[in-house]
UniProtKB/TrEMBL annotation:
The chain crosses the membrane at residues 37-59, 87-115. This is Interferon induced transmembrane protein 1. Belongs to the CD225/Dispanin family. GO terms for biological process: defense response to virus; host-mediated suppression of symbiont invasion; negative regulation of cell migration; negative regulation of cell population proliferation; negative regulation of viral genome replication; positive regulation of osteoblast differentiation; response to interferon-alpha; response to interferon-beta. It comes from Pan paniscus.
């Protein structure tokens, strides 16, 4: 054996000629886009002042449709609008419900005082 062949046999092939093997795994992460359908349905059924709950429900369904098609950006846009409408529907619903209860209580007290005054005037004659 020649001296050069002996070196190649002992040392092996040069490192630059050996290609490292690698495996690439692509993982598609599905980003979870909340579509707020349950919240919109609740606002539609119970706190539907000014029809905001119904409009929020429509945007939630659109968001779900966009998510099923694979349009994540469109789903996020519709979900954001639905969330904003749901927040406003909830705030207005709570305020209007409290206002209606206060109006009912104060109205009842006023009617009671008027009726009491009428009864006292009748007795006075």
């Amino acid at each position: 054996m020649h001296k050069e062949e002996h070196e190649v046999a002992v040392l092996g092939a040069p490192p630059s000629t050996i290609l490292p093997r690698s495996t690439v795994i692509n993982i598609h992460s599905e980003t979870s886009v909340p579509d707020h359908v349950v919240w919109s349905l609740f606002n539609t059924l119970f706190l539907n002042w000014c029809c905001l709950g119904f409009i929020a429900f429509a945007y939630s369904v659109k968001s779900r449709d966009r998510k099923m098609v694979g349009d994540v950006t469109g789903a996020q846009a519709y979900a954001s609008t639905a969330k904003c409408l749901n927040i406003w529907a909830l705030i207005l619903g709570i305020l209007m419900t409290i206002g209606f209860i206060l109006l009912l209580v104060f109205g009842s007290v006023t009617v009671y005082h008027i009726m009491l005054q009428i009864i006292q005037e009748k007795r006075g004659y």
